[in-house]
Amino acid sequence: MRSVSVAAPDGTRWTVRVAWEPRWRALARRFGGWRRKRKRDSGSGDAVDGAVQMGDAATSGSSGGGGGGFDLGDAVFVLVVVFIAVIAAAALFWWVLLPLLLILIDLVVVAVLLVLAVLGRVLLRRPWTVEATAGNGERITAEVVGWRAALRRRDEMADLLGRGQASDEEHAAGPSAGR
Predict the structure, then answer these.
(1) Which tens digits make up the pLDDT trace of 11-55?
(2) Facing residues of 5 across strands?
(3) What is the mean pLDDT of the chain?
(4) What does the H/E/C string look like for the chain?
(5) Cα angle vertex 139, ends 6, 36, to 5°?
(6) What pLDDT, on the 0 to 100 scale, is given for residue 37?
(7) Is the dihedral of CA 125, 126, 127, 132 positive or negative?
């Protein structure tokens, strides 16, 4: 979302925006233990540590019979070609097709979550947070229901701050520098 920058008459630079993101501090208090667990985990995470070694599988020989055009050498050649084709197909799947499939699934999940979030904001009428932040860390917030109303409130706050007329009502609603 585009933020509006404005300079107050006393020289303070303010940035006014409509905040989309959730209240991270509330989420961190509720689900905050995950960071400590991740820092303690020191495993390598790699299931394969060494290189794969291939032994000599070519045992050649010729069949003693003279009955046809298919001997042991042809069978070994066919097995090697099939083995290489299976390895190539597995590598193609593992390093190309599977990552593309996972990216596609991620995009679908993000799109569904975005649609649900917008619908949740609109249908549940959760207020948007209009936030003005000064260069010195002072913060003024106001909660407004409706996207267009929030954009209008953002512009009004920027205009008031530019004229040096920030209302006491806004400061009471949230000049929390430590939020």
Answers:
(1) 889 999 998 766 566 555 666 555 555 555 454 544 444 433 344
(2) 15
(3) 76
(4) CCCEEEECCCCCEEEEEEECCCCHHHHHHHHCCHHHHHHHCCCCCCCCCCCCCCCCCCCCCCCCCCCCCCCHHHHHHHHHHHHHHHHHHHHHHHHHHHHHHHHHHHHHHHHHHHHHHHHHHHHCCCCEEEEEEECCCCEEEEEECCHHHHHHHHHHHHHHHHHCCCCHHHHHHCCCCCC
(5) 125
(6) 53
(7) negative
